[in-house]
Amino acid sequence: PLLSSTRMLQQARSGKYAVAAFNVHTLEMLQGVTEAAIETQSPLILQSTVGTVNHLGPEYIVAAATVAANQTGLPIALHLDHCTDFNLIVRCIRAGYTSVMIDASMHPFEENVRQTAKVMEVAEAAGVNVEAELGKVGGVEDDIIVDELDALLADPDECVKFMDLTGVHTLAPAIGTAHGIYKGTPNIDFARIASIAERVAAPLVLHGGSGIPAEQVKLAVSLGMAKMNIATELRIAFSDEIKAVFANKPSENDPRTYMVPAKQAVKQLAMDKMQLCGCVGKA
Ligand code: 13P
Ligand code: ZN
Ligand code: NA
């Protein structure tokens, strides 16, 4: 069966490694990261965004993820990424998701607390892990002054207060990473990670995993990041292989022909990220 990610991530936090969490959009992407977990004997978090839940339907995603967990016998969780809609969270929990993110980070602190606590109520009853976000993960404009930049990052005092008020299992504090591929090197506030980790015992989640240089990932993980989300790089790896097949043979019309190399590229990238996270052999 699919497992809640709570224990998996607590073990990662205390073992100073991170579990790699992959946003998948198709069956082959899901199979590719699962094969990577088998080959490296890693714990695994399969994730879907709200858009993919709407695209495929939560029941199909749960069914495929459940097969992955049952056939491999590996610790695998299924997580709903960046959800702002309470009703969709409830729907996914009913369908069998074992972890959900309530993203109320665009609201003031008190409203974020209120929405997160409300999700905690339904999730705890179902044994489902909850992730919340503080600060705002996003692209950083080149000309934003430091004060404004700072305002986007999670405040360590607020993190402590937030954990006390919500009891949320896992926390994604904004510390300077961004979704998508970075133009230069990401401007990660490692001192902030350290000061949050010093005061928050729960597993911390690193968003914006695509494009972070290896040394920066390792440092962030060593400081307390216990889960790393990877979306964009996986999509690119998958799509590039399909494009290459069609560039070579525009008349190709057998999906298996282009899905096989695409799945293989997903697997390879996932194995690289697992290595980076230090979760290889931790299943
Ligand atoms: P990337 O697209 O940068 O990999 O970010 C992934 C993420 O944080 C998903 O929640
Ligand atoms: Zn994210
Ligand atoms: Na990124």
Give structural notes.
With 283 residues, the protein is of the alpha/beta class. It has one domain: Alpha-Beta Barrel (TIM Barrel), CATH 3.20.20. It has helices at 5-15, 27-40, 50-56, 58-72, 86-95, 109-126, 146-152, 156-166, 190-199, 214-223, 232-248, 255-277; strands spanning 19-23, 44-48, 76-83, 99-102, 129-134, 170-173, 204-206, 225-230. The chain has an eight-stranded parallel sheet, sandwiched between helices. Helix 5 (86-95) packs parallel to helix 6 and helix 8 (156-166) runs parallel beside helix 9. The chain starts with a helix and ends in a 6-residue tail after the last helix. Residues 140-147 have low confidence and may be disordered. The structure holds 1,3-dihydroxyacetonephosphate, zinc ion (ZN) and sodium ion. Residues 82, 137, 179, 207, 229 line the site of zinc ion (ZN). The site of zinc ion has 5 residues, from loops.
List keywords for this structure.
283 residues, alpha/beta, TIM Barrel, 12 helices, globular, binds 1,3-dihydroxyacetonephosphate, binds zinc ion
List the helices and strands and how they pair.
Elements: H1 5-15, E1 19-23, H2 27-40, E2 44-48, H3 50-56, H4 58-72, E3 76-83, H5 86-95, E4 99-102, H6 109-126, E5 129-134, H7 146-152, H8 156-166, E6 170-173, H9 190-199, E7 204-206, H10 214-223, E8 225-230, H11 232-248, H12 255-277
Parallel strand pairs: 1-2, 1-8, 2-3, 3-4, 4-5, 5-6, 7-8
The chain binds 1,3-dihydroxyacetonephosphate (13P), zinc ion (ZN) and sodium ion (NA).
Residues 23, 81-82, 179-180, 207-210, 229-233 line the site of 1,3-dihydroxyacetonephosphate.
